[in-house]
Structure formats: structure tokens, C-alpha cells
Amino acid sequence: MSELVTGEAVALELRPARLPSRALAVLLDLVAAMAVYVAVTIVLVTSTASLDEAAQTALSIATFVLVLVGAPIAVETLSHGRSLGKMACGLRVVRDDGGPIRFRHALVRGLIAVIEILMTFGVVACIASFVSARGRRLGDVFAGTLVVRERIPVTRTGFVPPPPPWLAGRFSGLDLSAVPDGLWLAVRQYLTRMQQLDPQVGSSMAERLAADLAERTGAPVPQGVPPAAYLAAVVQERQARESRRAIGGGSAPAPAPAADGPSAVYGAPAAVYGPPAAGLPPVVAPGAASGSTGGDRPGKAPEGPTGDRPGTGFVPPA
Fold it and tell me: Does the structure show a pLDDT above 80 at 1?
């Protein structure tokens, strides 16, 4: 699970920042650092006018190192890779595996930035970032980091395709109470992005997720049902249960299939699924009682004077 979520989340969600946005972020950081450096220098010159020339030189060097080298390192460490310029441009420094950076990563980036940005006026950094496939400068290469974009334009990646119509209601007897939130998140991420994956990789991921989900529910994947369709049907069943629970136990309509039909998402029904599974009994977890309640187990609606309460027809978003 952790390998699947971490690796795929980094590959699908994070987009490396390119040279223009990185250059703008560095320019903003340098302007802010130089403004602080000039202000601190003026204060030191005024307050240390009585000192000799050697002491003033030592204070100037210490101020340069602390403000232009130490301050960026501290800011990136405390903010987990978001300096002032990166925050303005929607960028962040992360590790190669997508995790937050630590002090050693910021230290290596800051020390090498003195050479490739300050001493060479950014020429070395621009060349390295332009040549790199992921826009990394030398500090990123030696520190094992990557600058990525945090603000990504909204796309239709959040659409979860509906399952085939002949799978509707097949999994109403599954016990979903033991399925962790991390597995639901992984399944939803796969369903919303499976069209962007290589077919062989997507098929392998679907099989792994379906096996994990079947192990948590205690019921095997029905024979002849593709793993992707099985995942979509179970997710739809969970959404239907949440909708019924949100409106007080009343019946909620199932999500309507897309206009282009499930065949456009999962493939041709006749070739992939075979004949519709009509007439087969619904899938029930071993040992689950048909009328039990609690958790995510399906049960009877709570008894009470609900007949005189009109239905709203509202289905909360899952």
C-alpha cells in the first residue's frame, strides 16, 4: 500500500517546476534577502562606528553569511521547502521520493547556491536547470531534492467512472467496515487516473488493489469480473451507503452512469466482461448476517415513524 500510494502519488500528482518559474522564485528570494541584508548592514554600521576596521570587516562577513546563506537554509528547513519566492510562485522543494526536506537537504542546497547562484549570478544554475530533464540545479542533484509545482490547474481527474450496469447491487452484502481509509484513497486515485496509465501497469495495479480489497472484506473477487470494474462497483456501494446514512437511513438513488457508458472507460462489455451476471446472488462476506447493522454493514432502516416524513431526494456528495 505505502509503495503504491507513495510511488504513484509522486509520479502522477507532482509536476517538476521549470526554469522560468524557478528563476522568478529565486529572484524574489534574492530581493527579499538583499533588502534584509542592507537593513542589517545599515544598523551594524551605525552601531559599530567606534570599532576598528578589522572588527567591522568581520561583522560584515558574518552578516553576509547569516543573511544570504543561513537565513534561506533556516527558512526552507522550517517551512519544509517553501521560501518566500516559492510560496509566491506556488513551488515547493521536496525529496526525490516526494517527502518533505530536512535540514541536511536545505544545507546542501544553500551551500551550493552560493557558488551557482550568488558567485556566478545564476548562470551555472540556469544552465544546469535547462539541461536537466526535471529542471534541477546542482544543489538539487547533490541534495537529492526536486522543486515541484503545488498549484496545478484543475482538470477532470476527480471523476470516478461508474461500474457496469450489470454489477449494480452485486456487492450490497459486503462488510466494508474493515477497509482502511488509505485503501479507499488508493482505489479512488487509481479509478480517477487509470486512463492515464500504461495498460499493463494499470492492469497490475487494479489486480493488487482488488486483492487487498477482497482480503479486507473477506469475500473473493467474483470470477469473471475485471478488477477495475470490481473496484468501481465496491466504491459505488460505499458511496450509496454513506448517502443513505447521511439522510437518516432512507433509500438513496445510486449514482447515474456516465453519458458515454461504462464501455468507454472499461472497454467493450461483451469482449471484456462476458455476458451480464444477472440472476447471480449478491456477494456476501462469509459469516455476515443479512439483517445485521453497524459499521458499514448493510442493514434494515431504523424503525420509527419515518413513513410520514417526505423524502427530500437529496443525495450528499460522497
Answer: no
Q: Mean pLDDT of all residues in the chain?
A: 74
pLDDT tier, 7 (very low <50, low <70, confident <90, very high otherwise): very low
Instruction: Name the pTM for this structure.
Output: 0.47
**Residue 28 confidence (pLDDT):** 93
Residues paired with 237 in a beta bridge: none
